[in-house]
């Protein structure tokens, strides 16, 4: 059977994982940053070395395209993911999918086979959404779910704008977003959860992805002296925020459903030991594979905020991102299962808990995802880990799925 070059793939994952380290060795490549530029430059170099046509669109999405004279059809089979990271990240989230996509195309190019349509690999801008909201922004713009001007005007957590940052790092490309109209989209990713490892299953055939609701909430109370103000006379924004955090957590935990709720950022003003907080600003990340339940969770949060308002706390809510759950293409999911079976690997159907570019691409083309196990279910953490053999196995399943989708026959190279 034809197979990817394991050492080339693993070597690139490690090399990219070394880009964007701070003095203490922490990996952070936020969208549009200098570290992002270095990672992009490395990737573009590899795409060129592989003989792919490199195209960059005006939201900074990078495409490596293998167009062959024999292509009977022009719409590509697209493989994609992202190379931006969260703060203090692991090396696999997103990068594995992009580099495995490149590896698959490079392997097929060297195999002497010609596909009936182009093959392309994409690295989408700002999937993580840590610096600029919403997340999955590059693929969302590609899928025409957000207009380019709005995306470029997004203001970062550091006050920068994405458009200016892309121009500064040299990745405000010329191509119009969405110029590449995929025939089909496949994304390979680490699971970032505990299911595959727990069950000892090496391949996940991802059939759906949960909905995501991101909000930023600002609560305004009154700053006052921590020593002299009786408890009954306080309008404490910090306490109000803590009650929201607890209520969200308890409600999700008690819901007996896959609902998850996270407050990942929280800032108090004036942030002084002896001053009752006048303001609390925090983010809420709510997710559920069921749209009705996700709406119910949002409504419950809103009702709780109304209660705070009735107590005299001023409440401001900004919506940062809202994506409905997605169901992936059944035929591609079956192809993944078949490819696993042919390689003697167990697979299971599963739901993605994390957001992915595939969720956006599913708006415009049949899409599906392949997962490989994450040790301890840990991700968005430097301890993120997948065994080399599992990474290579996943890349070979991607290879087989792409061979099928691109109308190639896997001859020779046995
Ligand atoms: C992306 O990594 C997300 O699911 O937040
Ligand atoms: Mn990811
Ligand atoms: Mn991520």
How many structural units, i.e. domains? 2
CATH architecture of the largest domain: 3-Layer(aba) Sandwich
Mean pLDDT: 96
Uncertain spans, ≥5 residues at pLDDT below 50? 410-414
Based on secondary structure, the structural category is alpha/beta
**Continuous helix count:** 12
CATH class of the largest domain: Alpha Beta
Task: Explain what this protein looks like in three dimensions.
By secondary structure, the protein is of the alpha/beta class. It folds into two domains: 6-210 and 326-410, Aminopeptidase; 211-323, Alpha-Beta Plaits (2-Layer Sandwich), CATH 3.30.70.360. The protein contains twelve helices and 14 strands. The strands form two sheets. Strands 1, 2, 3, 4, 5, 6, 12, 13 and 14 form a nine-stranded mixed beta sheet that branches. Strands 7, 8, 9, 10 and 11 form a five-stranded antiparallel beta sheet that branches. β1 and β2 form a beta hairpin. The radius of gyration is 23 Å and the shape is globular. The structure holds glyoxylic acid (GLV) and manganese (II) ion (2 copies).
Q: TL;DR?
A:
By secondary structure, this protein is of the alpha/beta class. It has two domains: 6-210 and 326-410, Aminopeptidase (3-Layer(aba) Sandwich); 211-323, Alpha-Beta Plaits (2-Layer Sandwich).
Topology summary:
Elements: H1 6-17, H2 34-49, E1 53-56, E2 62-66, E3 77-81, H3 95-110, E4 119-123, H4 137-142, H5 148-152, H6 162-168, E5 184-190, H7 195-199, E6 203-209, E7 211-220, H8 237-253, E8 260-262, E9 266-269, E10 279-288, H9 291-310, E11 314-323, E12 326-327, H10 330-342, E13 347-352, H11 357-361, E14 367-372, H12 388-405
Parallel strand pairs: 3-4, 3-5, 5-14, 6-13
Antiparallel strand pairs: 1-2, 2-4, 6-12, 6-14, 7-10, 7-11, 8-10, 9-10
The site of glyoxylic acid (GLV) has 4 residues, from loops.
């Amino acid at each position: 059977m034809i197979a990817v070059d394991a050492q080339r793939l693993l070597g690139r994952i490690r090399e990219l994982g070394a880009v964007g380290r701070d003095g203490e060795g922490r990996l952070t490549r936020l969208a549009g940053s200098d570290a992002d530029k270095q990672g992009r430059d490395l990737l573009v170099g590899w795409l060129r070395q592989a003989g792919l046509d490199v195209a960059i669109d005006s939201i900074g999405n990078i495409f490596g395209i293998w167009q062959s004279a024999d292509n009977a059809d022009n719409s590509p089979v697209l493989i994609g993911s992202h190379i931006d990271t969260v703060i203090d990240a692991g090396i696999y989230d997103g990068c594995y999918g992009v580099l495995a996509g490149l590896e698959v195309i490079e392997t097929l190019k060297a195999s002497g086979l010609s596909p009936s349509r182009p093959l392309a690999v994409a690295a989408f801008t700002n999937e993580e959404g840590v610096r600029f909201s919403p997340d999955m922004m590059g693929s969302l713009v590609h899928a025409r779910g957000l207009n380019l001007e709005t995306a470029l005007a997004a203001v970062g957590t550091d006050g920068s704008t994405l458009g200016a940052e892309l121009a500064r790092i040299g990745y405000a490309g010329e191509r119009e977003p969405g110029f590449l109209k995929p025939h089909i989209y496949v994304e390979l990713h680490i699971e970032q959860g505990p299911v595959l490892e727990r069950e000892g299953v090496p391949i996940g055939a991802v059939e759906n992805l949960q909905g995501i609701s991101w909000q930023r909430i600002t609560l305004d109370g009154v700053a006052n002296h921590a020593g002299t103000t009786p408890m009954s006379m306080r309008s404490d924004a910090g306490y109000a925020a803590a009650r929201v955090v607890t209520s969200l957590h308890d409600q999700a935990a008690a819901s007996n459903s896959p609902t998850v709720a996270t407050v990942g950022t929280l800032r108090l003003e004036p942030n002084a030991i002896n001053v009752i907080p006048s303001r609390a600003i925090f983010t809420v990340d709510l997710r559920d594979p069921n749209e009705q339940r996700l709406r119910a969770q949002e409504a419950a949060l809103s009702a709780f905020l109304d209660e705070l308002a009735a107590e005299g706390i001023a409440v401001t809510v900004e919506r940062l991102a809202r994506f409905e759950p997605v169901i992936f293409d059944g035929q591609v999911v079956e192809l993944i299962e078949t490819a696993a079976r042919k390689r003697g690997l167990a697979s299971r159907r599963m739901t993605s808990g994390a957001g992915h570019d595939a969720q956006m691409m599913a708006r415009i083309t049949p899409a599906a995802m392949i997962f490989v196990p994450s040790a301890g279910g840990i991700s968005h953490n430097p301890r993120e880990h997948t065994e080399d053999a599992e990474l290579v196995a996943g890349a070979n399943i991607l290879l087989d799925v792409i061979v099928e989708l691109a109308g190639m026959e896997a001859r020779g190279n046995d």
